[in-house]
Design goal:
Number of helices: 22
Helix content: 40-55%
CATH topology of the largest domain: Heat Shock Protein 90
Distance between the termini: 70 Å
Structural class: alpha/beta
Strand content: 15-25%
Radius of gyration: 38 Å
CATH superfamily of the largest domain: Histidine kinase-like ATPase, C-terminal domain
Strand order of the largest sheet: 2-1-5-4-3
CATH architecture of the largest domain: 2-Layer Sandwich
Length: 649
Amino acid sequence: MELEKILSQMADYTTDAIVITKADQKNSSGGPEIVYVNKSFTTLTGYTAEEAIGKNPKFLQGPKTDKSTLARISQAIERQKTITAELLNYSKDGYEYWVEMNLNPIFYPGNDECVYFLATERDITERKTAEGQLIRAIESAEAATKAKSEFLANMSHELRTPMNGILGLAEIVQGMELNEDVAECIDAIHSSGVSLLTILNDILDLSKIEAEELEIEEYTFKTNDILKNIKDLTSLSASRKNLVFDISINLNVPEWLCGDAKRIQQIIFNLVGNSIKFTETGSVSLSLDYKNDQNPCLMIQVQDTGIGIPDEFQKHLFNKFSQADTSISRKFGGTGLGLAITKYLIEMMGGTIGFTSKVNHGTTFYVSIPIKEAPKQDILQTEIKVNNENALKGVDLTQIKALVVEDHPINQMLVVKWLKKLGLHHIDSAMNGFDSISLLRNNTYDFILMDCQMPELDGYETTSLIRDMEKQLNTRTPIIAMTANAMLGEREKCLAAGMDDYLSKPLNYGQFQSCIAQWIGAKPDASAPPVNMNNDKLDDSVPVDLSRLNEFTEGDKDTEKVVINLFLETAYESFDMLKTAQLHNSAEEWRMAVHSMKGASGNLGAMTLHSLCSEAEYQGDLSKKEKSSILGNLYAEFGKVETYLKGLN
């Protein structure tokens, strides 16, 4: 008993509140019963020992006490485990206070029976209050930063609009016959405008960086295009200072790369522009090299014979609004943002930047950017795209009206999407030949895209009816056939039916764009390389070419889900038709069902399934047993496609 008194006195001397509850007893509220509290408990809560003993500790909790924390504590009690938790409680006077509670089970000596739970509670109210104030301060600062970034972005956009007008008008006036004084003034206006526009671009990029909205893109580009742009942008300023400006490119640098050309050009322009700015005599050189190993990189070096960077300022070089000293800003101008943005862009691409410098001897910057050589097929498609975009220039696409006649919903969706991508606003669609005739009675179109294989009234018959209607009206609308039939003579068959051109499925965007350009009055570039539609070798382990799917979705996940579900739904219907055709031994019904699946699978990029359908399309006359084997092969490949597509969702 003497030891118990000593222990009780020790508990009263501690500054932490102590609460002991009995493990095997439940009070009227169904919870553990308090059997002991120390004096610090009373100091903390305001409740005396007499008021607390016999109650459930939950009487200290209130409306703001975290329910998930209470659940963790209850779980620890049930499992007889130790737990540490931060808990919001309420004093007798109703004030909120925070405790850091350590709860430990107390076992009966000699066995594993838990008899008590000992909770020590330390008052952490001041700490939690300080944390709350800090969180609110951070949130306030973040909100202020966001507001500042949005303001900078809006202001830079607003200022860019009149600046573009000023620069454009200045360039027009520069092209006029002017006396020397006026020409000098106009050149000064244009030069000042370019400088201001550079500052605005820096501010816009900074606001995007701070708002975490700046993104790095990836696309195919020609390396020499960047160098030509850099030369065009910087040669004049270098020549005005009588500087030698050299550009060299190692022979091992690929002609085509895959990355963000705009940002890479911005990086090089910032470095070269800085070198020219801070070099009074001598030279500036830009060199490119390429490291082609497991981690291919574009190596960029910019070297000058300028003023150099003092040692004490080198560690601040990439900080925002930082320049070597105030005299630099006064003499050379600038915001001090260029190098900070450059470093950020390089690091976003996974690259690195470094430099060496000596005062009055110059500076050399070294940049390494991970980047891969562009695949040959991407190069081809980029060239086709550029040629076709050039072909469509000068045509007011918003006034062109098109009719798409296609019974398969996925194919129709693709064609309409591509037409909108070209810039067309007026597009009607019909699911069959009869609907297209009805639309033509009340509308005129600049061209018609006609699917050849449709139920009830196919593309050939529909075209014949349209041509008969046009004879009475003395008009003729270009009709472009779309067919998945790759049989020899199909093109001639389409032309004989009265169609004007022919596109084979699966459709290819480059070929599609070139064809449309021809029939809306544009002049396609005769030097455009031929389209190679089916020579790509796909990975056999991947049943769907996702680049085809992306032509539908353009990366939008919601659209992707719609397209996949639509494809699967129509495929299920085609299989039902195939089983019925096999059962009734109907060759025509078999052909129509396979043809429908062939077109959809090809346009979606399921090329193996497309190939199997192409073989099966004209095998409707085979025996039921032979068709059963074909159907089994189609089921097997479709199963792979189905599993893969559902995995994307």
